[in-house]
User: What shape does this take?
Amino acid sequence: MLIIKLSTIDSTNAFLKQWVQQTKAHNAIAVKAGYQTHGTGRMGSKWYSEKDLNLLCSVYIGGISIDNSAIFEINKRVCLAILDTLTPQNIPALQIKWPNDILSAEKKIGGVLVEPILRGKQVTGVVIGCGINVNQLDFPNLPCASSMRTATGKLQDIEVLFESLAANIESTVRASSTDNSRYLDALFGLNQAFSFERVDGTSFSATILGVAEDGKLKIKHADGATELFEEKKLVFTAFAHC
Assistant: This one.
């Protein structure tokens, strides 16, 4: 894997997508930056981070072939790769909050952005953006945020974390299958009832049953009826201001 380390960049995902377009020399590339001026999360949301305190990176994995309808499988695998990286650091109560957040003790510690590279309807590569709160201690106006240092009380080595995460992402993405049972075991709120809010502002309570193959959240209402929700169509009320 080619490793690239930068001081400041607009976006590691944007940098890596341009790099891949310009050269076909590598099937695996990882890039990290100390600071991103235009870091983004899923669906265009912003990712804020203090300079040189957190892990801001992207990983390109090429030479794969999956149908575009199954792209959420890559999202699952990357989330599991992050857990593989953080668990040895004794980060407590790690969970995956649908669709792309990593929690520690129900506080957001990381996030994932998967962008496919397509040939027709086939995904031939992916650019995976990862943001992990590492040594930052203050998160103004982000009451649900935490960091590895907050969780452990210890200063963390970002360089070591980056190289470990990049290796885990490559091996997990290239695996022959997704460990769905392990993903469900780590899924925040599985088989628990929560209050939710639809995009039209209406609220309801329902139980989380799991995640469909296309990435939609499956919930069960009090009357037993089930429903599937796309991301950004449903908000956990408890995380609405996070």
